[in-house]
Fold:
Amino acid sequence: MTEQRQDPGNGTERNAPAAASDEALAAAWEELVETARRTVRDGLVVGTSGNVSVRVGDTVLITPTGVPYDRLGPGDAVGVDLAGRQVVGDLAPTSELPMHLAVYRSTDARAVVHTHAVHATAVSLLLDEVPPVHYVTGLLGGPVRVAPYALYGTEELAHAMLDALRDRTGCLLRNHGTVTHGASLGQAYDRTAQLEWMCRLWLTASAVPGRTPALLTEEQLAEAQERLRGYGQPRS
Structure:
């Protein structure tokens, strides 16, 4: 795939973003498509209701609007620069592009996953914050906030999401779904899956008549977060 350099139309040459090699873009696109397909297989989205992006240099590869993920191939890559100008491909990017770009402009994220996961979306209808029912809360930076409702694809939604993501790596969007980000597509996806599981756990426990779910205290959560900092295999 070749990164396009669009003429701004004013007779001047715009500054090109940091270049990513064709090989790097192709590999990242392949992983992005597989991640998008996984959201469908795992029941986190229906049809084309979610979107996935990954940053390669200053290029953001992102799923196109209205195209089923099982139809995407190597020649369907879509990419924009951090200003939102299309630099890769001909298909139009997802309508949620403002939300993805807001994350990349405001954090050091390298990947973003947005889904309409059922349990997480259900919780967004009921609460302003996901209760700390499990220490997995620590993987997302603390209790997950719910951003107020705003129309999809708008800057208003992007701003509401950023506020909910403050010091967090995931949030819920009221009456809409989930957003998580990470240092890789795998990490962003895992955070989405953990958030959906945690919301399902809360809904299951809170549905028991006459019982109230036990929640972690601030001290217990802080202790878990500290231990989670060293979770996983040590890096060489």
